[in-house]
Design brief:
This protein is an alpha/beta fold. The protein has four domains: about 190 residues, Pyruvate-ferredoxin oxidoreductase, PFOR, domain III (Pyruvate-ferredoxin Oxidoreductase, domain 3), CATH 3.40.920; about 180 residues, Thiamin diphosphate (ThDP)-binding fold, Pyr/PP domains (Rossmann fold), CATH 3.40.50; about 80 residues, no CATH class; about 120 residues, Rossmann fold (3-Layer(aba) Sandwich), CATH 3.40.50.920. The protein is about 40% helix and about 20% strand. The strands form five sheets. Strands 11-10-12-13-15-14-20 form a seven-stranded mixed β-sheet, with helices on both faces. A six-stranded mixed β-sheet has the order 3-4-2-5-6-7. The N terminus is likely disordered.
Length: about 625
């Protein structure tokens, strides 16, 4: 029997961070996700994050899972258990383990890790798989399942949960169920026969997630597009947005099929580049379909001219931007909130766009569906902006809800009878004084509305003009429409927590870290009021929150504090009131980072105030 050294080990139940270190392309992702799903199935809040390089295979990759019964789902920092399967990254992986933590590694090749303050768990996984499986290509895959089996005993995970996950995962390939269960039991049996168990870290059924689901933001947004009435998607592959288009296609094949014939009632086109993708989507919307495209920062840059066309010609469009590190190619597999200003002011000339900022997959679903109504109502591009962390990782969130009686809002669209009653139809006439004009679909009327869209300077009847006064009037009307949009977009979520509180503004995937930081700061007797920005243009609630605080920290994951810049530009807010709190390493922001920054600045602020009083 392997002897575990007597050290002061971490002791906890349903509260730890485990990090799997593998080689990219080794098939470890499904095994690691199986572990995260097992935690979720046992009712324990879990936050898995896939950390991978921008190559196909060969480089180190990591999969970090935070398990926390209190429901804190932001990245925590530090590792309690490391499952080290890649000798290339041993040094980094071992260094990250907190004192008293645990290291599980493949001891087929024994190694001395020079850490006296951790428990080293040796399991000869490769040797076990070589002896149990004949196919050399399958052995690396089954080795991953074997370490999950070992963890099931070490952490006291319910075996039946893992058994069910394997059965479900290979339901379409039933021949693979038995060998995967065999691999799972290889790891289990080795621990049962050779090692002391369980560890000081264990899991216990919590049943706290009855009304929750585990899903990625991209998959949620793809499903939301289906429910929002999208029948056309054009896209060009780019990390981290590709899985959103794939998610749409997957769900469209389920819900957008004609019952009698099996015919597709949707189209999903992989274009030759980003320019073609957005051009196709604009054309689809111009013809009356609900179409969208999905991309990331570099794609937004390439789509800029077409975005100006859609804005000025007033054609509905939904564009999903799943942000990544930048500029240029940047860090394509790391997260960042790097395109806030690029989306808000995309294209040349005087343009302003409506932008939605979901904070979890539930809002990805809701805002995705809502975006198509907004695009039709406002006749303009609508951005739904998430990021890699939210888009490509699974998150625990509330179950989605949908009213089957809901009717889409197609906005101001005239039919043939409407046009017959209008003596002189003008595509760009602001009849209702809200900046939004009436439009028709192509072919609606044999005579009226034939030329009803123009991307060059035009008058109210879509006639080309170089009259500066007329063009200025058009731009002023578009600004009026933008103000109308502020009454239609999702409102901010505001939480007031007491007198003498400083304010914190945040958006998107920073939400879990901010809420956890709020609780930690409260223990330090620092109260913070929260405002989660969910859309641009900003409505009155945003300005009232700012007016009610003399100091506000704007938490965001980019170098230049882009949301802060946007708020100052739109509201003329003093830089002294809005204080940047930025994080841009490419890793998700942590509550501890926010706590340290706010604590330090609040201490300095109060010292300054006290000095003034003296």
């Amino acid at each position: 029997m392997h002897e575990v050294k007597s050290i002061e080990s971490i002791q906890s139940t349903n509260d730890f961070v485990i990090k799997f270190a593998n080689v990219n392309g080794s098939g470890s992702a499904s095994a690691n996700q199986m572990f995260a799903k097992a935690m979720f199935r046992m009712g324990i809040p879990v936050s898995p994050k896939n950390i991978f390089p921008s190559n196909i295979q060969g480089l180190p990759t990591w999969f970090e899972v935070r398990v926390n019964e209190k429901g804190y789902l932001g990245s925590r920092g530090g590792v309690d258990i490391a499952v080290a399967m890649n000798p290339q990254s041993y040094s980094k992986d071992v260094d990250e383990i907190l004192p008293g933590g645990y290291l599980l590694y493949d001891s087929t090749w024994k190694r001395n890790f020079n850490r006296k303050d951790i428990t080293v768990i040796e399991i000869p996984l490769t040797q076990l798989c070589v002896e149990a499986f004949k196919n050399p290509k399958q052995r690396p895959l089954f080795k991953n399942i074997a370490y999950v089996g070992a963890l099931s005993v070490l952490l006291d995970i319910e075996y039946e949960v893992l058994e069910n996950i394997i059965s479900e995962q290979f339901i379409k390939k039933p021949a693979l169920i038995e060998p995967n269960l065999k691999a799972l039991n290889l790891g289990r049996n080795y621990v049962l026969e050779n090692l002391p168990y369980p560890l000081g870290i264990t899991v216990s059924r919590a049943d706290k997630l009855e009304d929750k689901i585990l899903i990625s933001g991209n998959e949620a947004a793809g499903l939301g597009a289906v429910y929002g009435g999208a029948t056309f998607c054009s896209w060009y592959p780019i990390t981290p947005s590709t899985s959103l288009a794939e998610g749409y296609e997957k769900y469209a094949k389920k819900f957008r099929i004609e019952n009698n014939t099996g015919k597709n009632l949707f189209a999903s086109v992989q274009a030759e580049d980003e320019l073609a993708a957005i051009g196709m989507a604009i054309g689809a919307n111009w013809n009356g379909a609900r179409g969208f495209t999905a991309t990331s920062g570099p794609g937004i840059s390439l789509m800029s001219e077409f975005l100006g066309l859609a804005y000025f010609a007033e054609i509905p469009l939904v564009l999903f931007n799943v942000q990544r590190g930048g500029p240029s190619t940047g860090m394509p597999t790391r997260t960042q909130q790097s395109d806030v200003l690029a989306c808000a002011y995309a294209s040349h000339g005087d343009t302003k766009h409506v932008v939605l900022f979901p904070s979890d997959p539930k809002e990805c679903f809701d805002f995705s569906a809502q975006a198509f109504d907004l695009a039709d109502q406002l006749q303009t591009p609508i951005f739904v902006v998430s990021d890699l962390d939210m888009g490509m990782n699974d998150w625990v969130c509330d179950k989605f809800k949908w009213d089957d009686e809901y009717k889409y809002n197609r906005g101001k669209v005239l039919n043939k009878d409407d046009l017959d009653e209008i003596e002189n139809f003008g595509r760009y006439l602001d009849v209702d004084n809200d900046g939004i004009c009436y439009r028709t679909y192509p072919g609606t009327h044999p005579e009226k509305g034939a030329f009803f869209t123009r991307g060059t300077s035009h008058d109210e009847y879509a006639r080309y003009t170089e009259d500066g006064e007329v063009n200025a009037a058009t731009l002023s009307r578009l600004m009026k429409k933008f103000r109308t949009a502020s009454e239609l977009v999702p409102e901010p979520v505001i939480e007031i927590n007491g007198k003498d509180s400083c304010g914190v503004i945040f958006y998107g995937s920073t939400s879990p870290a901010v809420h956890e930081a709020k609780d930690i700061l409260k223990e330090k007797e620092i109260n913070i009021d929260l405002m989660q920005i969910r859309s641009f243009p900003f409505n009155l609630d945003v300005w009232e929150f700012i007016a009610n605080h003399d100091r506000i920290y704007v938490v965001e994951q980019n170098r230049d504090s882009q949301m802060r810049t946007l708020i100052m530009a739109e509201g003329g807010i003093s830089p002294e009131i809005l204080r940047p709190l930025v994080h841009f390493t490419g890793d998700p922001i942590q509550a501890s980072y926010i706590v340290n920054k706010i604590s330090e600045r609040e201490v300095n602020y109060k010292s300054h105030i006290n000095a003034k009083k003296r």
